[in-house]
What we know:
- The complex is a heterodimer.
- Chain A has helices spanning about 10-20, 70-80, 165-180, 195-205, 220-225, 280-285, 300-310, 325-330, and strands at about 25, 30, 35-40, 45-50, 65-70, 85-90, 95, 100-105, 115-120, 120-125, 150, 185-190, 210-215, 235, 250-255, 270-275, 290-295, 315-320, 335-340.
- Helix content of chain A is about 25%, strand content about 25%.
- By secondary structure, chain A is an alpha/beta fold.
- Chain A is globular and about 65 Å long.
- The two termini of chain A are about 30 Å apart.
- Chain B folds into three domains: about 1-145, DNA ligase i, domain 1; about 210-415, DNA ligase/mRNA capping enzyme (D-amino Acid Aminotransferase, Chain A, domain 1, 2-Layer Sandwich); about 420-530, CATH 2.40.50.140.
- The interface between A and B is medium-sized, with 20 and 27 residues.
- One zinc ion binds near residues 54, 56 and 129 of chain A.
Amino acid sequence: MVNHTVDSTGVRSVSSSLSDSLLVNSPHGLYCPPGDFYIDPIKPVDRAIITHGHSDHARPGMGHYYCSANSAPLLAHRLGKDISVTPLDYGTVSDFRGVRVSLHPAGHIRGSAQVRVEHDHQCWVVTGDFKRCADPTAEPFEVVECDVLITEATFAVPIYRWRSGEAVAAEIMDWWRGNQATGTTSLLFCYSLGKAQRLLAELGRYTQKTVYAHGAVMPLYRIYQQQGVTMLSTESTVDLPRDHDYSDALVLAPPSAHRSSWMKRFKRVSTGFASGWMQVRGARRRRGYHRGFVLSDHADWPGLIHTVRQTGARQVYTTHGHNEVLARYLREQDIAAAPLSALHQQPASD
Amino acid sequence: MQHFVQLFRSIDATTSSNAKIDALVEYFRAAAPADAAWAVYFLSGKRLKRFITSRDLQLWARQLTGLPEWLFAECYSSVGDTAETVALLVGNEQTGDSSLSLQQWLENRILPLRQLEKAQQAQAVKGWWQQLSITECFVLNKMLTGAFRVGVAKTMVYKALAQVTGLPQAVIAHRFIGDWQPSADFYRLAVDPEQRRSDSAKPYPFYLAYPLELDPDHPDSVTTGNQLENRLGPTDHWLAEWKWDGIRGQMLHHQSGVYLWSRGEDVITHQFPELAEAATQLPQGVVLDGEILCWREGRPEPFSALQKRLGRKRPSARFLRQYPAVFMAYDLLEYGHLNQRNQLLAQRKQLLATVLDGLSQPSVFRQSPPVAFDSWPMLEQLRQSARHYGVEGLMLKRLDSPYLSGRKKGDWWKYKVDPYTLDAVLLYAQPGSGRRASLYTDYTFGVWQDDELVPVAKAYSGLSDKAINRVDNWIRKNTVERFGPVRSVRPELVFELAFENIAPSPRHKSRLALRFPRIKRWREDKTSREADSLTMLEHLLAEKANGVSPLPAASGRIASPDQD
Ligand SMILES: [Zn+2]
Ligand SMILES: [Zn+2]
């Protein structure tokens, strides 16, 4: 599938001029010098391995994209049909100039992947965003043993401990039923890629009612549907007349639609937000939603610690969110750990 | 406790006052009287005498979870509240099998903790935590450490009880005022529609005035004679009095004794023995509303003198001579054991004059004199000069107003002197609590002393949400040092602060203290070099010390509205 040939001399000269680090920080993002590719780069590069379809990981302008097979349609939707993508099957090893690369499920959203990079008897794993809770819409997280682990740390504080999606969906059902009794529309805000589909699948345990969604959610919903994910049937508000009666409906929308003119079509509404941040009362109140539901697609504190231990990594780098907290805690547990910014920095070349 | 936790959940899940009141009504309808008594107790802001501290909770939670201190501090900084942080760390996913009622929790479990040693307290509380869900732990922690502030105003509780009992809200408020012990009997009496007030040791709910808007940029601003005329109509419907800079109080003389209550619903009889003594000369069955002031040579002493009095439970004779107090009466709420609050102000004033005239003179009971004025522009001028007399401005009361309860618009207005202002530089910031736990909203400000900035005031952000976010962002980017939750920042942002008063304070580095400092606006047009200096504040202090002028002589009779 990957048609790079290994130029052993070239590789050697690149890697020796940098360091022994298999991955390094560079102005364009996380870079593999011997393999000459980037992971979730932040600026345009030739070869980009993309962990998943969220916009802080999958950015436009890359010469060539590599991602999991289930992630490819999401990338095409977000970045344009004309991007050049090579889909990789989970667990299948590809060769990048002698560097062995494989993707493994991260459990974050559909198609999300960890990237395993192996070279010269060294094995690194980049988790990308991941979670350990069950999610009927995402391929379940796979533990990948490694020497060096680069892990996300979005919710790396012990107050973040998640309940199951099933339990949170039951809470949402209660809220929805309570609103129905008073003719109030239940307007639930959530990220349109991943969270919305997870909710539609989890709620399917409790109801068969049709759910409505903001236009931004629909194309992603259809991609999940095409991949055989079972979800509640969902209609777009765009396809309905403006005076449609939503008085007993549940409507999903991205946070950007909160307080937008799109909301005017609903008469009485109760607003909710489904996110890990809703764990804290102060955060619930500050965002101005009536209800907060604690549902995250990232690992919670126990999930992070457990995962680090399971991989057996002897060196850990942490990124996103509370990365310093996680690194310090791991060091106190005698695991070498540092924020990702401490990883070897490749000087800017051009 | 399940029902109470459910009530908390419902209240916490909504921002609408009506929905909160509905939840309260539903709770009180179903609750056993003893549980309801405890619920009112906590929801109306009362707290157990503190015997378990936030520090205890933190320590026990760390023992239970094995978290190091620094990691607990990280948790706290994400949450902003110890009770909540601990609950999130120790609480279980599943609801505990807690069949105990709220009353049983308190009387069989929580209150007996007082008799225990710390180690036993720790063992008991840790044991409970292991049985309870996160929300249950949160409610328990709040009851243990006091302050149960959960977005319910006392008035909502009273409103709900009024709905449940059919009694007027003011009656409910009155019955739950002051110090009471939660019990089934107390609650039954308090909500009993048949029960009537007799000889009580409790004050009436205070009637509080709204301020007239003084910000000239505000659409409702009232700062000129014309605006007063438009807002309040003809002058002869109104009584003006000085707004005294003391503390509001009610003096009760009943058969059971004399009681002096502060507006904060504390009994302060012991702090003011000379007032209590003199009150025995009042006829029995009388309740006066007025201001407690330190008074010397025909004029009020600065508020700081009164503060000294408030701090002494058993003042010596010498102390009493040093800071002599008076009760400046301005209303009469009960006379001859009869409630007078529905009488018109003019009639209550006449009755008040009769009562006070009957005392042997000179008395520590004085009648707050009417301020004579015959036009609104004249009144506005009197307001401007109020500072010279050591008062905070004027009170305007409609002569035909009844004595209402709580803060109501329309009949009574505060017409305060303009606050002092200064431009100060932001020095330190720390996160707020509750709703604003993750934003830097509590600020410390400084002014120049030579080339150094000296802290002079702390203020919570009075800024718009948008500005708060911008300042928060700026603080994070311009932090110089961190001390726990506090950050010192580059001394660059200038804010205009308003404050009510200034007093010497040897405790502070600046040697002075500002009263009620608050942020008026963010002076984005100013650099820190343009901020004010300590010298400016010292001049202000010296000016005040140099004297308050005697008050202009009282004059004018109070016209009864019946006569025109
Ligand atoms: Zn993501
Ligand atoms: Zn991410």
